[in-house]
Design goal:
2 copies of one chain form a homodimer. The first copy, chain A, has 217 residues and is an all-alpha fold. Chain A has one domain: Orthogonal Bundle (Tetracycline Repressor, domain 2), CATH 1.10.357. Chain A contains 11 helices and no strands. Chain A is flat and about 60 Å long. The first copy, chain A, starts with a helix and ends in a 5-residue tail after the last helix. Chains A and B meet through helix 6, helix 7, helix 9, helix 10 and helix 11 of A and helix 6, helix 7, helix 9, helix 10 and helix 11 of B. The structure holds a DNA duplex (30 and 30 nucleotides).
Chain lengths: 217, 217
Amino acid sequence: MPLSREKIAATAIRLADTHGLDGLSLRKIAKELGVGPMRLYDYVINRSELLDLMVDVVHARIAEVDQHSEWRTTILAIAHATRAAALDHEWFSDLLGGRPHLGPHALAVGEATAAALSQAPGVRGIDDLQRALGALNAFIIGAVRREVTERRTTRSTGTDEAAFQASLGPYLTRMLNTGRYPTVARLVIDGAHLNAEETFNHNLTTVLDGITSRPRT
Amino acid sequence: MPLSREKIAATAIRLADTHGLDGLSLRKIAKELGVGPMRLYDYVINRSELLDLMVDVVHARIAEVDQHSEWRTTILAIAHATRAAALDHEWFSDLLGGRPHLGPHALAVGEATAAALSQAPGVRGIDDLQRALGALNAFIIGAVRREVTERRTTRSTGTDEAAFQASLGPYLTRMLNTGRYPTVARLVIDGAHLNAEETFNHNLTTVLDGITSRPRT
DNA sequence: GTATTCGTGGATACATCGTACGGTAGCGAG
DNA sequence: CTCGCTACCGTACGATGTATCCACGAATAC
């Protein structure tokens, strides 16, 4: 059975997609590939490197986004591709931003993002670009993390109100009944469940508007 | 030796501050407290609940921020307190946003944030408030995560240019020399190392400006 | 042909982890 | 005194990442 980093990563991704990072182990990957666990060490230094490799493989998909002549269109496309990738591979949201992402595909995504953002009004030099990239990337990392967490919570507590009430609701209801969290209570009780993709897009636009409305520095 | 959730959490926090989450185990906490590992299960259901408890303890500190009459001052204070907490407890940045944070202190922080943000111009109803909270929290989660990651990278590769060159530099230099990442190369080579706190504040202001400049919906 | 070396691959082992489970000791109530 | 409950710990198990060693087959040298 010929092995390769690509093959190991693809298997790891498949297993992580199904079982999450907690359910992913080198032994399980090896078993799935039909080899002994120590074989993997011919290709990756340790588990951590394997995780980095998996992250870069996901970045390869994000990097396929078309470059547009208009900077904002490109940024929106990259951000949405990142979100889509995170929703397809939820473990990605747990890893994103937790390590420097320096694989070739991650660098390609970084390059496409930076090149587009350097065209944005308000971004007049390299310091501006660094700050703008920081704001955008921070938002994306946080937004996908929160969205995946919310999906997981919904999945584990049930997808309808009755299951929520049975699982998490009693505690939360009790807390909200203390009267100590009136705004949160209003959000929970009265808040509509906003469409996740629209929320992401809306808030991404908010961040980009903030970036482009900055006074020149 | 009388135990309590508070005592267990405080010990866990101390150990995680020193050794990171990877170096934190229930056995080590128990040993530090001078009890058997199974004792901990009288107080926490499992390791996951202990982590949630630790996060809520950190939120207690963030919740101590003074409420101001001016919404933006309050938001800035909460955001900066969150960043400060994450820098003091780097493991916090790995957990933030990865689970619903429903402990009493996290709810208190959420309440203070939501109450202040509901006063912001541009936030006219509960849908606006939900979106604005989403944007702000996403930014904070992502920004502290990235900043802690950068600190860890700097620490592990050395704090000066020479150590960086010896450790990560050869790979990155080789990649940048391919010419495939010209904007990234410019950022790495020419980019000043911006002050982290100023960057956080700048980008936080950027996000808030975006939130308050939105057209009414 | 035989002996030696090298490369590939797997088996075994170790330390560690979270947690299940069972047993014991001490204390308080009846 | 006995019994029940609580606190506590010891033992055990399955699982994990990874170190280390050994066996086997193929290639090379003589």
